[in-house]
Structures are given as C-alpha cells and as structure tokens.
Amino acid sequence: MLTPEQIESWLRAGLACDHLAVAGDGRHFEALIVSAAFEGLSRVQRQQRVNAVLQEHFESELLHALSMQCLTPAEARARGLLG
Prior knowledge:
Layout: H1 4-14, E1 19-24, E2 28-34, H2 43-59, E3 65-71, H3 73-78
Parallel strand pairs: 2-3
Antiparallel strand pairs: 1-2
C-alpha cells in the first residue's frame, strides 16, 4: 500500500521544497507543498510541475489521486502556515 512518506520522498527527489506535508488513506492523498520554485507560476502551472514529478506513478496507477495546495514561501507565511 502506498504511504504518504513514499509520496513525500518522490516529491523531494524532484522538487526543492521549503515545506512538504502529505496525508492520505493509501489511495487518495492531499499535499501541502511550499516551494520557491512556484514563484511566478500560476496555480495550474504549479500543479503541472508537481504532476510532472509524479507522472510515472500516476501512469502506473500506483498513485490514484492527489489533491494539492502549492504555495510559495511568502504565500505560506502570509497564511500562517510557516513561521
């Protein structure tokens, strides 16, 4: 069964994250991803970047669904998510 830790590992390997939290039930997951790499990107472009990192896992159907919130460090601080 797929774990949140596995998804975190894949994301960290493909994207520099200032903060990363993944939760889920083994099939459906949600992630809070904070990365400076999202600076200047639209919401859709940010999600496309994350999907590209996880593409092989989606294609193999090991990963079925990932709801994601993709923020820059400044956005995360403004929302009180980072100190």
